[in-house]
Amino acid sequence: MKISLLHFFLLVFLPSLPVFAAEDTLPILYLRQKVEITGVDSLKGVKVCPLYKNAQWAVTSRWDDSNSDADLKMSQLMDKYGYKATFYLNGLLDATVVKSILARGHAFGGHSCSHPFFAQCSYNRIVEEILKNRIDIEARTDISVNSFAFPYNQYESATRPTLHWDIYRILRRAGYVHTAYNVFLTPEMKNISQCNQLPYEGSPAGPQFNAFLADSALQKKEPNICFNTHAGSYTGSPGLFTQLEADLKQFAGRKDFWYPTLTDYGAYRFQYKLAKIEDLKKSTGNVSFTLVRPAGLDTNSPIPLSLKIDGTVANNFQITVDGKILPPDSKEKESAVFSVPFPSECGPPSKIDAVCVEGKPVFSPKFPFLIASLFLEREPYQFQLRHMKNGPALKNIFVTLRLPFAAEEPVIRTKPTRVLGPNGLLSVSFDPRWTDRSLAMVQGRAMFVAQVDFLCDNKPSRLYVYGYKDIPSSEKATVYPKDHFAWCGPLATDECDATDITSKILQNPDSASYSLPNGKTVVWEKPLSDWMVDSPDIIISRPISFLTAFIRSPAQQKVKIATDAGRGIWLNKTPVTSGQIVTLNPGLNRIILCAAGNVFFKLIASDTGQRITNIEYVLPNAVAKSITVKPSAFSRIFVRDWLLCGPFPNPGDRPVKKGFDIDYLATGGGEAKITPVKNSEVSWNGKKITWQFYHSPEDRVDLFQFPPIKALTNYSDIVAYAACTLISDRDLDLLLGIGSDDGYKLYLNGTLLKTTRAFRGAAPDQEVVKAHLLKGKNHLLLKIDQDFGQYEFYLSLSSPTGKPFAGLTVASD
Ligand SMILES: [Zn+2]
Fold it and tell me: DSSP state, 69?
């Protein structure tokens, strides 16, 4: 997102030798079309053109980071000069902007759900960031997505050498065929294309553009030139905007260029690489063959495929595809080019929905006659789709199961089910056959997705059904460094470089505190947990710190150190380096690291490179008597204890349902003014409704588990309130992160801070709002509405500075 961060990671995570698994062989659905041509004498050949209509270059643009105003303005600039834009989303744009952008032929791509550094994420998290982002955009826009842009352009890590290849595999298993980056692909990565980016946000693009045009090897490999990267940087600076406009003007309207979206470019190149011409037959003047190409279900764009026929083109030249006449794009004496569209029933979907299923069946909002279930309690797992009454029968149903990273088969596609009519049931059992249940592979919850593609009223349609499950690990968490290191810092660069602090720590790593020459004192603390970092190989640090742990080894053994702790590594007080083979003593070994930022640390076998699993990391205060490791204060927490009140009715249709704007708390002083206490009551419509204490066992508050809502027979069309009190020992600025299913109103101390009308699934921090707490009690109230499907919310409190904040108490009684 920010250039400085990008450069930082390019410098720190130097690419190292990737370890490649075999080329992936994911299922692809192929389509066969019969092509017959008359009027071609002395046929020399038929080939698939590298670009649509046999253009020489595809010229396009990429814009990241979900900026509604800037993206709209950028799309209008592209329209002016005949270009198309692809907007890479990591949050949703304003609904009217989405509509306007799509209506003018621009496209959307994936940019992850929460814009994390992939190098710091667990595998299950990376899969979710990439796949759920695609599902969310598709369900929101009804347009399928096939191109991905990496957050921070980051996809590799020096200490996770397979990460680059693994991310390629994850992109493929999530259904992507294109990545909006110019140096991602290696020759082994065959089924994805990429784009050649021009200099961005400041430099004139012309010289680089002309250099690309002159590069015939590049044209053969990836004939694409792309303006980029953040629309806001251009729209926020009149000078840059004018510069960009001049560059666009210079290369606009060229006959030998194709100006597609990156979705269309990616889909075209995917077909180009995989299409085949079979059963080629020729007799006097007539040519016939079968064109075999990936179907719209896998291209996710309806871009036609262009073919070039070389031979003498006679007057009676005519092309028919599956019996229908197709006019050529261009015709010369010795050749003709024509573009074969998808048959309408084999194109990509035009209506897309997504439902999250946990435990019980859920109706699809857009296909309300379909009810889906995902049973993940025991293996084999089961996906079920039931057709209720009052809806058209589904035809040509393909179920594509997209499974967690540790599953043996990443993607399973079932044979087509011809018809699912009223009262019909489609059921698919599947066994993930785990290849690796180590903590690194299964850490965190794993996402399971059933993508169902079908014809509904003869239109290609799609329903995603997804759910989560925690897969138990076969390993103990103590095999990994995360949460087992004590942390001392942060230090300024000069403080850290002072030999004084280093020698003090090395001489006496168990001291309760260390004083610096400048009078500052530092102590050992337990590092903060950080939601952005979930790889168990990463120790959470802060710039710049010392870190220490014990490593318990059952015997003397030689191991290799793999770490990016760049400022120093000491094993049993001896300096060592990453990549060095060292000897662990039987029993406890002391490791000390000095690093800037989060640290990757792994001990591997020097011959196989595999993780050493017979060791254990031990937090020093568990064994060293003199060291006190202070528990760190929090910098971000979720409120799990609430006073809840409801349900109240919420009739009517989306987007504005009636209950959302009815103040049901009027008898208690109104939504803005109420300060509820446990077991207090409000009256509405002659009924008394009690504020009840509710503790959520997880960060997500599932309102279906709140007893008065759990007791309902119909979980749809309701609203409820959630209240808590934030008690601060001083005036305090903080951030409130809200995730909601569906919409909400947020009040703090009587002020309406935020209203979000939405129909969506909940995720942490879908909106983040700045808030100011007063010394003493602060009253927070959330009103959450429910259309149908899941009903839940998240509320996080975080410190705007990232520093832990003390003196804040959350009360709910
Ligand atoms: Zn970004």
Answer: H
Question: pLDDT value at position 632?
Answer: 64
Q: What is the pLDDT of residues 542-596, one digit of tens each?
A: 778 899 999 999 999 999 999 988 899 999 999 999 999 999 999 999 999 999 8
Spatial distance between the Cα atoms of 262 and 598, rounded to a whole number of angstroms:
34
pTM, to two decimals: 0.78
Surrounding ion ligand 1 within 5 Å at CB are 1, 64-65
Looking at 284-402, which runs of residues are DSSP E strands?
286-294, 305-321, 324-326, 330-331, 335-340, 351-356, 362-363, 370-375, 381-387, 394-402
DSSP E strands in 2-48: the ranges are 30-48
What is d(CA 419, CA 406) in angstroms, rounded to the nearest whole number?
Answer: 33
Q: What percentage of the chain exceeds 90 in pLDDT?
A: 69
Question: Do 460 and 349 form a contact (C-beta atoms < 8 A)?
Answer: yes
CA of 232 to the centre of ligand 1 (A): 12
Does residue 648 contact residue 811 with C-beta atoms inside 8 Å? no
Spacing, Cα 228 to ligand 1 middle (Å): 12
Nearest to 594 by CA among 562, 569, 576, 619: 569
Helix (H) or strand (E) holding 750: none
Question: CA of 669: how far to CAs of 203, 540, 672, 673, 683, in Å?
Answer: 58, 46, 8, 5, 11
CA 381 to ligand 1 center in whole angstroms: 36
Residues 690 and 676 sit within 8 Å (Cβ to Cβ)? no
Examine the pLDDT at 614 and tell me if it is beyond 70: yes
- The candidate with the shortest Cα–Cα distance to 157, out of 538, 476, 432, is 538
**Would you say the C-alpha torsion 668, 671, 673, 679 has a positive or negative sign?**
positive
By the 8 A CB rule, do 754 and 767 touch? yes
What pLDDT sits at residue 532? 67
Q: How far is the CA of 229 from the centre of ligand 1 (A)?
A: 9
Compute the distance from residue 1 Cα to the ligand 1 centre, in Å.
4
